[in-house]
Amino acid sequence: MAFALISRDMTEIHTGMPANELELLKAKVTPAERFAWVSCTLNHRELHAVYASLNNAVVGFPTEEAFHTWTGFYRDDAVGLGRSMTRPVHDSD
């Protein structure tokens, strides 16, 4: 996770979750084999941590190139993923 570059306290501020819990979440959503799909259910706290991580990563890199080099994704894709994550929650209220 990109947050390994910052302190544990700042990681919790950015994501709402302590670093050790983020590691457990990472294990939960990481496929056993590369390019495999993972199906899991996230609670609100875990969903928030993923959403907050996406948003903080988008603004945490000074350039699009740096973001893409570090993550392998483009900022627009990360923003779109964050938006798509909030739609079902928003629509259920």
Overview of the molecule:
With 93 residues, the protein is mostly helical. The chain has one domain (2-92). Helices cover 67% and strands 0% of the residues. It has five helices and no strands. The longest helix has 18 residues, at 75-92. The mean pLDDT is 83.
Identify the notable features of this structure and list them briefly:
93 residues; mainly alpha; globular
Task: Give a brief description.
By secondary structure, this protein is mainly alpha-helical.
Would you spell out the secondary-structure blueprint of this structure?
Elements: H1 8-15, H2 19-29, H3 44-60, H4 64-71, H5 75-92
Helix pairs in contact: 3-5
Q: Please provide the ordered H/E string of secondary-structure elements.
A: HHHHH
Structural class: mainly alpha
| Count of β-strands | 0
Cα radius of gyration in angstroms: 14 Å
Q: Overall mean pLDDT score?
A: 83
Count of structural domains: 1
Helix content: 55-70%
Detail the poorly predicted runs. none
* Biggest beta sheet attributes: none
Shape: globular
Which range does the strand content fall in?
Answer: under 5%
Distance N to C terminus: 31 Å
Supply the number of helical segments.
Answer: 5
